[in-house]
Design a protein that fits this description.
single chain, 150 residues, alpha/beta, Double Stranded RNA Binding Domain, five-stranded mixed β-sheet, two-stranded antiparallel sheet
């Protein structure tokens, strides 16, 4: 191969290798408009603990500037979450049983004039009941992660 062809090949390969990558997340809602949120979780297992857990997670990762569980505080939006958790068993190939908990969370973010601003659901499984609940609540919190661009 000629020297010119080798240089062109090397230049072409290095040009492709340097293509910029951008990772971004715009946010599930307009956090400039919806700056505060009140959280409530309905669950058959410790709904108060689940509500405080989700509020703490939202404070840590979400784009909401203010997160509260206090129904007397004025807020821009209300996040309601319904969690159901069921014990399950599964037969393995070696005829042993694995037991675990399966959780599903359905959520709705509402605001004045928009009763279904954002809705969704998520599922997860864990060996322990409370951990399965935490896992689906973590996914709800991550849905409202603050916007970023890397």
């Amino acid at each position: 191969m000629s020297r010119v062809r080798r240089l062109l090949l090397a230049a072409g390969m290095s040009a492709c290798a340097c293509a910029p990558l951008t990772y971004s997340q715009d946010g599930a809602v307009d956090f400039g408009k919806y700056r505060s949120v009140r959280v409530s979780v309905a669950s058959s297992v410790d709904p108060v603990g689940a509500t405080y857990y989700l509020a703490d997670e939202l404070r840590a990762v979400s784009g909401f500037e203010h997160v509260t569980v206090d129904s007397t505080k004025p807020v821009d939006a209300v996040l309601e979450v319904w969690v159901s958790t069921l014990p399950e068993m599964e037969m393995n190939d070696d005829d042993t049983l694995d037991s675990f908990y399966s959780s599903e969370a359905s959520y709705r973010l509402s605001a004045s004039g928009d009763p279904s601003l954002d809705t969704g659901n998520t599922t997860d499984q864990s060996e322990y009941e409370w951990e399965a609940i935490e896992d689906v609540l973590d996914q709800v919190a991550l849905h409202y992660i603050r916007p970023y661009r890397l």
